[in-house]
Amino acid sequence: MNSNDRANLIKRINTLEGLTDKERSALLGLLRENKTYGLVWEDKPEYVEERLRDELPILTEVQERTIISEDKDAPNHILIEGDNLEALATLAYTHEGKIDVIYIDPPYNRGDNDFRYNDNYVDKDNPFRHSLWLSFMKKRLSIAKRLLKNEGVIIIHIDEHEFDALNMLMETEIFTRANCLGQIIWNKLNPKGDANAVAVQHEYILLYCKNKESFNTSLNNLMREKPNAVKIINKAKNLFSKIGKTMIPDDVKAVISPFEYPEKTLKDFYVTYDLQLVNKEFQAWLKRSDFSEGEKAYQFIDENGDVFQTVSMAWPNKETPNDDYFVPLVHPINGEKCPVPDKGWRYPTATFTKMLGTKEPITLLPNMVIKGQIVFTTGRKGNNQPRNKYLLKDNLMENTPSIVNDGSSNDKLFKELGIEFEYPKTLSIAKYLLKNVIPDAECILDFFAGSGTTLHATMQLNAEDGGHRQCILVTNNENNICEMVTYKRNKRVIQGYTNTKGEKVTGLTKNNLRYYRTGFVGRSRSMQNMRKLVNLATDMLCIKEDLFTEQNTFGGQKTYKGVFRYFDDGKKQMLIIYREEAIDKLVDIIYDLDITQLIKVYVFSPSEDPWEGSFDDVSDKVELCALPQAIYNTYRRILPKKKDTVVMPEEDALATSEEDKDLFNGMLNFEYDEEA
Prior knowledge:
With 676 residues, the protein is α/β, with parallel strands linked by helices. Helices cover 30% and strands 19% of the residues. The chain contains 21 helices and 29 strands.
């Protein structure tokens, strides 16, 4: 339809009789849409979404299911039982912009009792089958995107039933084509037995990032170990084991002789002309050395593989460079011996920043010393360009391929763990993806947790590489899945279990697991609902701050759950004030405290103001946040629209009780005002 036809039709709709204002508005809205590429589907109301128009979700910890490690540094993994739309809303408050990797395996919508919408399974003959699935996914993916860090990635398993729809949804509604990292074909090796024609033996894995430019700052992302990595490592170990004191060149011996290193120390030094592994103590000598044209310059790398050097320079203007000519690899600290050559640096700044794996841009100065990952040497290699030499660990990696062959299954593992679950992700593919997509991820989310494979894989990776990844799982409890599958599996993985052979399998004990359920508070802003939301939000605040160690006293003052609570794990502190009457007393306590970092203070306030004036004398010791307004602000951005009504506090169900009055008048020395 051209613009003139559209304009004429708009005029006719505006003058057409028999339409309600709502109907007229809907028709005009459809006409004014200018989408030329993307998906169109019938959006069906979802029960859980309608509930969120009237109620706000919260999280409550199930204390009896908490598993706490003896290791004080163990990561706090979170398992949430509830509808994932409700749970994602709470995480939008606690984790917006904090998630590195979202890894999900949503229902494939095969029409085989694998996808429920509004409590009913969607079968193959349902005319709205694909529309229901798209409505379901878009609501959840829209919130999920908010949770990702700027450099974060979402990984989604899917098969042929909804691959096209999902890819289009991600590209046009959630992300953009520019943020697509590609698709991996997961070759499961075992063809499906119910095929009528082609026997499909693969599934798809879609990868999208929130911001591709930020994602690309790390060379480690989407990399995997080369298949022959082990052989390379062993070869290098054999080479270095043959290099000892007797192979140290005479000119190097002359330099190190004044240090009078004992023979035992010298055995730790491995030296070659191109690549040397030496102790950091040599850096002092390295910085004050005078390098001149024609002199061989040694590059020094400590036993951990760290290099003290600047990036290599391109060949200076020289008519006949030869193999004996070496540009110094480590610039003297004053920068006078190695000015920037006429031809400039070998690579531009952006390229060096990426190769060195740094987050911030590098300023390339002649006297800059970088502790980096890459060794650059100069010399001839069929032309006059520098020859690049990389550290061993960089030679062991390659880009993640688009096809992954993995015929493993969880059958044996599940049998040993005593659980049953259809269509689980295999542990091997989960580990492979989490390890290679963002290897140094800090926080991982799976809101279609199912059997809990993502947490199992996270804990195994931490055990293997010493990482401290945290995992958050969300699943409903349909057919007791959350309790009897997700929780049961990971509890046994943490605590250990006995396999089918009667052998004891050691648990991954350096992990904490905390179990939560979703709950609700009325959405209307009565004083009763506001106070109830603040009181019930405590567990969400603990998740938000990753702080769970509650103390019984604060500055010598006993805490009271209806008045204030205090959390301190030795690294950070959080104070939650439920009753504004307690503020003055607590400010006096804070004033006398000798603290080294700010105390995060969440305080009840019926407005945006966290009683800032009352905390003026201790403003340098606290970071204030007014509740419940901070939660309302988050929910307003993501929950279905409904006009909130402010109800005057004529009835405050959480007003101070007679018992609380005694607390105020007694131990806390508060004077209680009946009119407060």
